[in-house]
Amino acid sequence: MAVPLPEPAATPPASSLRILISNDDGVFADGIQALAAAAAARGHRVTVVCPDQERSATGHGLTLQTPLRAERADELFAPGVIAWACSGNPSDCVKLALFRLLDEPPDLVLSGINHGPNLGTDVLYSGTVAAAMEGTIEGYPALAVSSADFQWRHFEPAAALALRIAESMHAAGWPEGLLLNLNVPPLPAEAIGPLRWCRTAVRRYVDQFDKRVDPRGRTYYWLAGEVANDLEARVSGPDSWPIDVAWIDAGGASLTPLQPELFWRGAAASLPAAESLTG
Fold it and tell me: If DSSP codes are grouped into helix, strand and coil, which group holds residue 33?
């Protein structure tokens, strides 16, 4: 099912939104700078609070044992963007922004643009998705956006698409508890296929730990997994929706609705009585 969106507007939207932007690639990443610049150019009031260095694949981790530090980094962003570089993880950044750094609550939380895909079960590890999910948990409309290739560095099409989606959804009334996960293929804007609602693939990694020895003779291991997509696995969502991995491979943009709840969707009748498990 195609996602209906308005045609790209030549002028900024009528209403200016307060937008909080974070990521997991860090304050120096091209993706977040492009997203913030595009939002500011459309007349939105943009505040960036993101990690001071790359913290990819940190999931929804919070910093509990050390203090958080945040420093202004406006000079790294487009004029008018207020920016903070935080010593914590993506979830820390959004929490700190919402409860300490922002003068007003945001209308919208955006995360990205991630340098690489967040498809299928990647969302369980992704700091990009976790930052947006933190916004969802706190009751704010939130969207995570990723460029589905680690080497692609032309983020303007993804930024424009993310903002069109966010503005349209906000104007229509964002459903409570909904997180949107957008993946954009590494293509020029005119070559990107239709935007579709998609289901999440089962995306496993064949974990390969490379065993090495440091100069002092001590063993260490370097994780370098290879992805293995199972496009035949049964997944949640309407059967008419394509699988996100397959749709990205076809050149289209993938939009997946997510939520914080992790409750199992299997049949309760298939579980044994709890009392029987204790012997």
Answer: helix
Helices (H), 116-211: 127-137, 156-172
Single pTM value for the model = 0.91
| CA-closest candidate to residue 27, choices 62, 58, 72, 68 | 72
Whole-number Å distance between alpha carbons of 237 and 105: 32
* 142/179 Cα distance (integer angstroms): 5
Q: How many CB atoms lie within 10 A of CB 226?
A: 9
Query: Where does the chain have alpha helices with state H?
Result: 30-41, 90-96, 127-137, 156-172, 244-249
DSSP letter, residue 13: -
Residues 6 or more apart whose CB falls under 8 angstroms from that of 212 comprise: 219, 220, 221, 222
Beta bridge partners of 272: none
pLDDT tens-digit readout, 63-93: 999 999 999 999 999 999 999 999 999 999 9
What's the one-letter identity of residue 64?
Answer: L
Give per-residue pLDDT as tens, 93-143.
999 999 999 999 999 999 999 999 999 989 999 999 999 999 999 999 999
Q: 153-157: list long-range contacts, CB under 8 Å, 24+ apart.
A: 153/30, 153/115, 154/186, 154/188, 155/30, 155/31, 155/34, 155/35, 155/113, 156/34, 156/38, 156/189, 157/184, 157/187, 157/188, 157/189, 157/192
- Beta strands 45-51 and 18-22: pairing type? parallel
